[in-house]
TrEMBL record:
PANTHER family linked: COMPONENT OF ATP-DEPENDENT DSDNA EXONUCLEASE (PTHR30337), NUCLEASE SBCCD SUBUNIT D (PTHR30337:SF0)
Species this protein is from: Candidatus Nitrosocosmicus arcticus
Name this polypeptide is given: Putative DNA double-strand break repair protein Mre11
Positions of the Calcineurin-like phosphoesterase domain: 1-199
Pfam family, one: Metallophos
InterPro entries: Calcineurin-like_PHP (IPR004843), DNA_Repair-Maintenance_Comp (IPR050535), Metallo-depent_PP-like (IPR029052), Mre11_N (IPR041796)
GO molecular function: exonuclease activity
Length: 420
């Protein structure tokens, strides 16, 4: 049995606020669906961040509906969980649930798996760090116990079911700054852990999970927090054949993506390099995107800007930075449209100030809570004009959630645990 594992679609996102980039996302998502159909998959899993915004544009809704309808006509079921981009901070019903109610896709739940032939699929929506224990860890242990009992029954009956767990969470094992749980937090008993959240393609088997395969297919295109680069994107075909004890995967590259490149150029070589770059761009069906880092001394930005105008006809978008002669990273950017990632910058500043990852997570959760006007449950008792009331509320919040901020195992975060 083959299934498709696709994640981090971010439909509706327009990189650099360009309509062409929004359309690019719809095209590569369509390519992933078309390739899945051609591979005769039995089902498709969407592992979260289906939309880029919890209140997506009409275009994003229509384009998703079009692809789901196509799969419905081919009798290929679609199963999904929600990522943080799909979940509104208010009490609104998440938009993807509309497609569940229309019968075009089915939401996954942790307590009632769906079954396709000899395959069971469980799923959890995204959980914030402040609710990891209640929302994930405790339910994980419950599922683990259920699966252990089921396995004993199946062994006695000589009838084996393969099992998939779908999550949209980051693992500290792969990224110590963006993680939320560890691999050994995951429930044992699953053959395949269909992950979303990380935009890079990652696969690893863990001995603590009885060699269960944990896999992130990566995003289908460059996201809002990714720099311009010549990186490949795609999705996973997952082979759950009964003949094989292990789950096998094949990563499928998406060919219709708009190419993005970065070049570092010595200023004296600029004219020759620009001619070469323009010639190279002609081979692509879509105008590429380019990021230039110009190295040199005494460069006049106004003159350089005029020299780079020749790129406008060959590239959809270009960005440039001047690097000093002694500089190896960074530089001065003259790109006024480059996005500023507030969450990333805030995290970096707080970490530098507090020198503590748990306290940084706590600070970010509190900041998000105070800026969340739609969450009446968190804010209904706060009088923001009274310092004592705020202080008492903060202390109560910390006391109720301190286990989430004090139980990070630094040895595992630093990669000292080599058991896997």
């Amino acid at each position: 049995m083959l299934i498709s594992h696709i994640s981090d679609l971010h439909l509706g996102y327009a990189q650099f606020n360009l309509q062409e980039r929004e359309e690019d996302l719809y095209e590569v998502f369509g390519e992933a669906i078309e390739k899945s159909i051609n591979e005769h998959v039995k089902a498709i899993i969407l592992a979260g961040d289906i939309f880029h915004n919890p209140k997506p544009t009409g275009a994003a809704i229509i384009r998703l509906a079009r692809e789901l309808k196509k799969l419905k006509e081919k009798s290929i079921p679609v199963f999904f969980v929600l990522g943080e981009h799909d979940i509104s901070r208010s009490s609104d019903v998440p938009l993807p649930y509309l497609f569940h109610n229309l019968g075009l896709a089915k939401r996954l739940k942790p307590d009632s798996p769906v079954q396709i032939d000899n395959l069971l699929i469980y799923g959890f929506n995204k959980e914030r760090r402040s609710n990891i224990d209640n929302g994930l860890i405790r339910p994980f242990r419950k599922i683990e116990s259920i699966l252990e009992n089921d396995t004993q029954k199946q062994t006695a009956q000589n009838h084996w079911l393969k099992k998939i767990l779908v999550l949209h969470q980051g693992l500290y094992d792969f990224n110590k700054f963006a993680g939320e749980i560890f691999s050994n937090d995951l429930p044992i008993g699953f053959d395949y852990y269909a992950m979303g959240h990380y935009h890079d393609h990652i696969e690893k088997r863990f001995t603590t999970l009885n060699e269960g395969l944990v896999a992130y297919p990566g995003s289908i295109d460059l996201g809002h927090n990714e720099a311009i680069s010549d990186v490949e994107k795609g999705f996973l075909l997952v082979d759950l054949s009964e003949a094989s004890a292990n789950v096998n995967t094949h990563w499928i590259k998406l060919e219709k993506r708009r190419h993005q490149f970065e070049y570092q150029i010595e200023y004296p070589d600029l004219d020759d390099k620009l001619r070469y770059i323009v010639q190279e761009s002609a081979q692509y069906a879509k105008k590429p995107i380019i990021d230039l880092k110009i190295r040199g001394a005494d460069i006049d930005p106004k003159i350089l800007s005029r020299q780079l105008l020749q790129l406008e006809t060959s590239f959809l978008y270009y960005n440039w930075n001047i690097l000093g002669e002694d500089s190896t990273t960074g530089g001065f950017s003259y790109d006024n449209t480059r996005e500023f990632d507030m969450d990333k910058e805030m995290s970096s500043l707080i970490l530098k100030s507090l020198h503590s990852e748990p306290l940084t997570h706590l600070s970010l959760d509190l900041i998000n809570m105070f800026h969340n006007d739609g969450d009446s449950n968190d804010n209904k008792n706060i009088d923001k004009d009274k310092n004592n009331q705020i202080a008492n509320y903060l202390w109560k919040f910390f006391e109720n959630n301190k286990s989430n901020y004090q139980t990070l195992d630094n040895s595992k975060i630093d990669g000292k645990d080599d058991s896997n």
